[in-house]
Amino acid sequence: VPTALYASADEASRAVAEEIAALIRQKQSEGASAVLGLATGSTPKKVYAELIRMHRQEGLSFRNVITFNLDEYYSLGPDALQSYHRFMREQLFDQIDIDPAHCHIPDGTLPIQEVYQFCLQYEQHIRELGGLDFQLLGIGRNGHIGFNEPGSHVNSHTRLMTLDQTTRADAATEFGGLANVPRKAITLGIRAIMQAKRVVLLAWGEHKAAIVQQAVEGPVTESVPASYLQGHTNVAFVLDVSCAASLT
Ligand code: F6R
């Protein structure tokens, strides 16, 4: 798996934002849309900040951009403090010229009997637009991508996933205690991630070094869903030096 190492997360984030901007401009010049798969969490924040800067200072327009987020907690409303709807509005959407109708995030408020159909439609919508041109990913300490937890099949579809204990523990502070962390989330499946034309996984810091080493150099296994990316033909792991420390 190709890895790109940077001295800092800032530097790495600028390079990734630059790649996304180049894709958007390329599509603009063709009169086409750029279909982006987006992630939340602490890792991609600087990429979004850099895209906002490019919008303000370099005239980068998002009018031809269509986005699909990876996941949302179930059940969490779009205005809840920890909701990924809110995260995306605050970290990106409200600060650029994207059409809100072009921004898709799994709906965490659906009645349970409607979730299956919603998930089918979410994937169908991506396919109708010609697939994801670019998928941005973070990685959980347990190797999850999106909320595809260990045990997820390589062909898994978009679905309601029961969150791992590690995942819930890592979110505990944000939710003011483990008991408040949702037990489930809707996540884009591994299959749709693997079908993206380009995948960029970001990871910063020592606490991710061990799992990144397993994902990049270990066996391809359902115990480390990020290891499936070894089978993608156009993927990059973008790391800062401390995160790359365990790589041989
Ligand atoms: C978020 C997502 C998750 C995170 C991962 C890392 O949309 O899909 O897989 O990317 O849990 O989270 P941070 O970046 O907060 O360490």
Primary descriptors:
single chain, 248 residues, Rossmann fold, seven-stranded parallel sheet, three-stranded antiparallel sheet, 7 helices, 33% helix, binds fructose -6-phosphate
Question: Do you know the CATH topology?
Answer: Rossmann fold
List the bound ligands.
fructose -6-phosphate
Tally the helices: what do you get? 7
Task: Give me the Rg, rounded.
Answer: 17 Å
Q: What is the CATH class name?
A: Alpha Beta
Count of distinct strands: 10
Q: State the CATH architecture.
A: 3-Layer(aba) Sandwich
For the biggest sheet, the summary is: 7 strands, parallel
**Helical coverage, percent range:** 25-40%
Describe this entry's structure for a reader.
This protein has 248 residues and is an alpha/beta fold. It has one domain: Rossmann fold. The chain is built from 7 helices and 10 strands. It has helices spanning 9-29, 45-58, 84-91, 112-128, 165-171, 190-194, 209-217; strands spanning 3-6, 34-38, 65-69, 71-74, 103-104, 134-137, 159-162, 184-187, 199-203, 235-240. It has a 7-stranded parallel sheet with strand order 1-10-9-6-2-3-5, with helices on both faces. A 3-stranded antiparallel sheet has the order 4-8-7. β2, α2 and β3 (65-69) form a beta-alpha-beta unit. Residues 39-43, 70-71, 138-140, 144-147 line the site of fructose -6-phosphate.
